[in-house]
Amino acid sequence: MLSDRVQRIGFSSTLRIAAKAAQMVKEGADVIDFSIGEPDFPTPSNIKDAAKRAIDANLTKYPPNDGVLELRQAICRKFKAECDATYTPDQVLVSTGAKQSLYNAALALINKGEEVLIPAPYWVSYPQIVNLAYGNPVIVPTREENGFRVTTEDLLRHISSRTKAIIICNPSNPSGSAYPAAELQKIVDLCMAEGIFIISDEIYEKLVYDDFHYVSLASLGDKVRENSLVINGFSKSYSMTGWRLGYAVGPKEVIEGMSKIQSHSTSGANSIAQWAAVEALNGPQGEITMMRDEFERRRNYVLTRLAQIPHCTCYKPEGAFYVYPNFSWYYHKSHDGVEIRNSAGLAYYLLMHAHVAVVPGDSFGTDEFTRISYATSIENIEKGMNRIEAALAGLGG
Ligand SMILES: Cc1ncc(COP(=O)(O)O)c(C=O)c1O
């Protein structure tokens, strides 16, 4: 009965763990949730007030399919101010979350059988979005010792005559790693030379630490801007996950193609959320800095705790709100006669025996690792790390 399209995609093990954790909480268990993909802060009050004003001003009708002009102008101003990049409002498409921006992009760019390079670890939805567009995801492994950043050598091994595009996540979900300018430039030069279109998912761009100098793809010159899309959104930087708002900027032709697709699916993003987003971009940024500083404090704490766990390595991430430790030493150890075989097994063990929910690395194409989100209070992080430490010690660590 189901279409071929649906059969090209599957559920990830993330959902199984999340469902189990939800069931345990319902039954009264005290589960520490490190699987969270959203900031634990409320949306800043100036943004919420702007939404209330939009409702009172009856800005409650269908908005333009591409996004309200004031928001697209604010996005253009952001790129001018931060990247010295000139985009015009007809090069911006506002969508129902960065996820829809990515989906629109895949449908607008990819023909059946064309290949899209996806460095692993990757955000769970990238391969699935490419599959839904009848493209072929080509997974490019990276290395922990290299900060999980893809290199030109890695890419050269996977480029073929069918390669159409690459999806780069910078900073990365799940690893938190971000590209220093020189490394990004090398990859971009190779893609430009090979005619590979770049989709740069920059949704975590505001969450970078230790004075890391973040470089957006948009700042790398006209040729790059003509052959790439920058995807961004309000979910992570402005703690607006529930408002469902993201955007893409790029060449007019591609944006127009994406706009056509959007016009026949959602007819544009929520009007009230868009007016709130105008305030997010144009209003004071103090709360954003406060959230960033708090995430940095938590990252440092969780890294200190991981460093005390025997046989565990963990890359010090430049951004996002995840750490991505390698717990693979604990695979093939047993508890109560049950062998932990992989990241899903370890996540299940941590949930059942430590009451901590984490996301197994196999969801991101790298089974040696486990994603821990620190988008929760420092008290929860301390409690959760105590439990993980004890549970791993129980496996002989
Ligand atoms: C890397 C990455 N891209 C895109 C998204 C989707 O964001 P949105 O809430 O704007 O759809 C997420 C959300 O988890 C993400 O982690």
Q: Mind explaining what this structure looks like?
A:
This protein is an alpha/beta fold and 397 residues long. The protein folds into 2 domains: 4-42 and 287-393, Aspartate Aminotransferase, domain 1 (Alpha-Beta Complex), CATH 3.90.1150.10; 62-282, Aspartate Aminotransferase, domain 2. Helix content is 41%, strand content 14%. The chain has 14 helices and 14 strands. The strands form 4 sheets. The chain has a 7-stranded mixed sheet, sandwiched between helices. A 3-stranded antiparallel sheet has the order 9-14-13. α6 links the parallel β3 (115-120) and β4. α13 (343-354) crosses α14. The model has no long low-confidence stretch (mean pLDDT 96). Pyridoxal-5'-phosphate binds at residues 37, 97-99, 123, 169, 173, 201, 203, 233, 235, 241, 246.
User: Could you state the order of secondary-structure elements as H and E?
Assistant: HHEHHEHEHEHEHEHEEHHHEEEHEEEH
What small molecules accompany the polymer chains? pyridoxal-5'-phosphate
Question: What value does the Rg take, in angstroms?
Answer: 21 Å
Largest sheet: 7 strands, mixed
CATH architecture of the largest domain: 3-Layer(aba) Sandwich
Q: How helical, in percent, are the residues?
A: 40-55%
The side-by-side strand order for the widest beta sheet comes to 2-8-7-6-5-3-4
